[in-house]
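Q: Please design a sequence for this.
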């Protein structure tokens, strides 16, 4: 067992069963030995059973996404869809974060589809006079196949849904990119 440096030499450097110095943890290089004291990526991956990956996509920040379609439609299949293999014994967790608004009196839905089937969505009744932020998740149990996760939207007939996807500047401040964010993470299922 290693020890950690102490400003007071009379203090213990370890307490068996309560505090084990970082060198006792696999994959950690203690600060006293020139490391960061943080677990390494390979060690974290090994702790997950050798599985651990992610894919991240964001909107283009060119113009807002809009739709008047009364059925679920991909928000931006080119820039937001993620196709990823989900190994057997793993799970995929998709997270989609965005801001949106809809026409007064109309209900809109933001969701995530997996292989063209909507697996989760959040409704919003229009007319709130401001954008609503949403964060939602979808989970898929791995089967060794590739799956496509797609952020989708829907609005009642006669309505319009708008998802914020802009790069704006406020006087005296740096540009602020407010774009949808789509993340799919793969984890060991155990």
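A: Design:
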């Amino acid at each position: 067992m290693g020890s950690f440096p102490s400003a007071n030499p009379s203090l213990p450097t370890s307490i068996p069963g309560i505090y084990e110095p970082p060198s006792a943890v696999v994959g950690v290089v203690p600060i006293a030995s020139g490391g960061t004291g943080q677990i390494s990526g390979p060690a974290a991956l090994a702790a997950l059973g050798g599985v651990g990956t992610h894919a991240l996509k964001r909107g283009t920040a060119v113009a807002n996404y809009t739709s008047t379609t009364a059925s679920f439609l991909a928000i931006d299949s080119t820039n937001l869809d993620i196709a990823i293999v989900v190994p057997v014994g793993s799970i995929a967790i998709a997270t989609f974060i965005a801001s949106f608004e809809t026409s007064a009196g109309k209900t809109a839905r933001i969701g995530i589809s997996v292989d063209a089937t909507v697996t989760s969505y959040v409704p919003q009744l229009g007319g709130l006079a401001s954008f609503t932020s949403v964060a939602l998740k979808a989970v898929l149990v791995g089967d060794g196949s590739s799956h496509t996760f797609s952020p989708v939207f829907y609005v009642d007939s006669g309505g319009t849904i708008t998802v914020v996807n802009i790069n704006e500047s406020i006087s005296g401040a740096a540009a602020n990119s407010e774009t949808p964010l789509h993340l799919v993470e793969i984890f060991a299922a155990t």
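Q: Thanks. Anything notable?
A: The radius of gyration is 23 Å. Residues 1-47 form one domain.
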